[in-house]
Design goal:
By secondary structure, the chain is of the alpha/beta class. The chain folds into two domains: about 240 residues, Type I PLP-dependent aspartate aminotransferase-like (Major domain) (Aspartate Aminotransferase, domain 2); about 120 residues, Aspartate Aminotransferase, domain 1, CATH 3.90.1150. The chain has nine helices and 14 strands. The protein has a seven-stranded mixed β-sheet, sandwiched between helices. A hairpin with a 4-residue loop joins β5 and β6. α1 runs parallel beside α5. The longest helix has 25 residues. The protein is globular and about 70 Å long. The two termini are about 15 Å apart. About 45% of the residues are buried.
Length: about 400
C-alpha cells in the first residue's frame, strides 16, 4: 500500500474526549481565581454563586421560568437516577435504548426498581427505535443524544403535546449543542463535563410543572435515599432549585462551569454554541464523504450526533478480520494518535463496535478538527501497514 506521510501540523489542543470534554478556548487556571473557597456553600457568597449558575444556565438554554433547575449530586447519572427513583411507578413506562447509557436506564427500571409495567424499545448501535411506538399515555425514559453510539433523536415531534405520561430525557451530550423543546420535556438532565467542558461530579436537573405535580402527588413504594429526596411533607423542596444543594458541592467545579457559561454568553449564547458545533461536525462529515476506509456508525444522516461523532472502519481488509483483531486494530489507531500528541481519548466506547469517537462540541476549535483529520488517515495507514507486515 502507498505510504501515508506523517502530517506536519498537529491540533493545538488534542483533547477530543467525549467526557470530560475539552475546556473552552483560552481557558486557564486563572479562570477559577474568583471561586468561593474555604467558605461554606451555604454562606451568602456560596449560595449566590450556585444561584448564579442556575440562572445563567436558564438564560443560555432558554428554559422557561415555569421550570425548576437544580444542581444535584453524581453528575448526569445522579440526576437521571434521582428522576427515575422519584417519579416512576404511577403508570407504565417505555424505556428507549440504543446505546450503553440507555441500556443502563433499562437495567435500573427493570432490575433495580423492578417496575411491573415496562416496555423496552431497543435497537443496536447506530440505529434508533421507532419513536412512533412510544405511547403518550405512558412515561418515557430516553437519551436525547447517545454519547456512545453517535445517534441523536432528530427532533421532538414524536412527543405528544397532550401526553399523559412524563418525558424523562437524559440530555447530557445535547444540552448547549441543540435547541431543546422545553414544552416537550418534563425532566431534563445533563452534566457540566460534556458540551461545557466542565469538571465532573455534579448534575443538573430541570423539572417542568408536570414533573413537579407528579412529585407532590405521588409517593413511590420504595425507600428513598437522602440524596434523591426532592420533597418534604408532600411539597417540593424549593431550596434545591435555588442553589441550596442536597450535599456539599465543589465550588471549584461550580466556578469552572460559571466561567464557561460566561464565555458562551460573550460569543453569542446558545446560537453561537450550536453554530460552532455544526461547523465542527461539517468538517468531519466532509472528510468522511471522501475517505474510503471510514463511515459514520449512524448510517442515517437524520440521526447523526453533532457532538459525539462515532465512526466505524469499512475497509474490506479490516472487515475481514475477526472481532478480536478488529478491536485490537482500532485500539492501535488511538494509541498511535496519542503517542504522536495528535489526539487523546478517541477510541470507541468499550461496548460499541470498534472504531473512533471524536467529540466535536462547542469548546473544540474547528481548526483543531481540521488538523486532526490527516492524522486519522496516517494512523489508519500505519496500523494497516504494521498489521499486514506481521500477518
Amino acid at each position: 500500500m502507498t505510504e501515508t506521510p506523517r502530517p506536519r501540523v498537529r491540533p493545538a489542543n488534542p483533547c477530543f474526549s467525549s467526557g470530560p470534554c475539552a475546556k473552552r478556548p483560552g481557558w486557564s487556571l486563572e479562570a477559577l481565581e474568583t471561586a468561593c473557597l474555604g467558605r461554606s456553600h451555604r454562606s451568602k457568597l456560596g449560595k449566590s454563586r450556585l444561584a448564579e449558575l442556575i440562572e445563567r444556565s436558564r438564560s443560555l438554554l432558554g428554559v422557561p421560568e415555569t421550570h425548576r433547575i437544580g444542581i444535584v449530586p453524581a453528575s448526569d447519572t445522579g440526576a437521571v437516577e434521582m428522576a427515575l427513583w422519584s417519579l416512576l411507578g404511577s403508570r407504565g413506562v417505555d424505556v428507549l435504548a440504543w446505546e450503553s447509557f440507555g441500556q443502563g436506564w433499562v437495567t435500573d427500571v427493570t432490575k433495580q426498581l423492578q417496575l411491573p409495567d415496562v416496555r423496552v424499545l431497543r435497537t443496536e448501535y447506530g440505529a434508533i427505535p421507532n419513536l412512533a411506538d412510544v405511547d403518550p399515555a405512558r412515561d418515557v425514559v430516553f437519551t436525547w443524544n447517545g454519547t456512545t453510539s453517535g445517534v441523536v433523536v432528530p427532533n421532538g415531534d414524536w412527543i405528544a403535546s397532550d401526553r399523559e405520561g412524563l418525558t424523562i430525557c437524559d440530555a447530557t451530550s445535547a444540552a448547549f449543542a441543540y435547541d431543546l423543546p422545553w414544552d416537550k420535556l418534563d425532566v431534563t438532565t445533563y452534566s457540566w463535563q460534556k458540551v461545557l467542558g466542565g469538571e465532573a461530579q455534579h448534575g443538573m436537573l430541570i423539572l417542568s410543572p408536570r414533573a413537579v405535580e407528579r412529585l407532590e402527588n405521588f409517593t413511590p413504594s420504595w425507600p428513598m435515599p437522602k440524596i434523591f429526596r426532592l420533597t418534604k411533607g408532600g411539597k417540593l423542596t424549593e431550596g434545591v432549585f435555588k442553589g441550596e444543594t442536597i450535599n456539599t458541592p465543589s465550588m471549584l467545579a461550580v466556578e469552572d462551569a460559571l466561567d464557561t457559561l460566561i464565555w458562551a454568553e460573550m460569543i453569542g449564547g446558545l446560537d453561537a454554541l450550536i453554530a460552532r458545533t455544526k461547523a465542527n461536525f461539517d468538517v468531519i462529515a466532509s472528510w468522511v464523504e471522501t475517505t474510503p476506509w471510514v463511515n459514520f456508525l449512524a448510517v442515517d444522516p437524520a440521526i447523526r450526533s453533532r457532538t459525539s461523532v462515532c465512526l466505524i472502519i469499512i475497509d474490506p481488509w479490516f472487515m475481514s478480520l475477526d472481532d478480536g483483531r478488529q478491536a485490537a486494530a482500532a485500539k492501535r489507531i488511538s494509541a498511535l494518535l496519542e503517542s504522536e500528541g495528535a489526539a487523546y481519548d478517541v477510541g470507541a466506547y468499550r461496548d460499541a463496535p470498534p472504531g473512533l469517537r471524536i467529540w466535536a462540541g462547542a469548546t473544540v476549535e474547528t481548526s483543531d478538527l481540521g488538523n486532526l483529520l490527516p492524522w486519522l488517515d496516517w494512523a489508519y495507514a500505519t496500523m494497516k501497514s504494521e498489521s499486514t507486515a506481521t500477518a
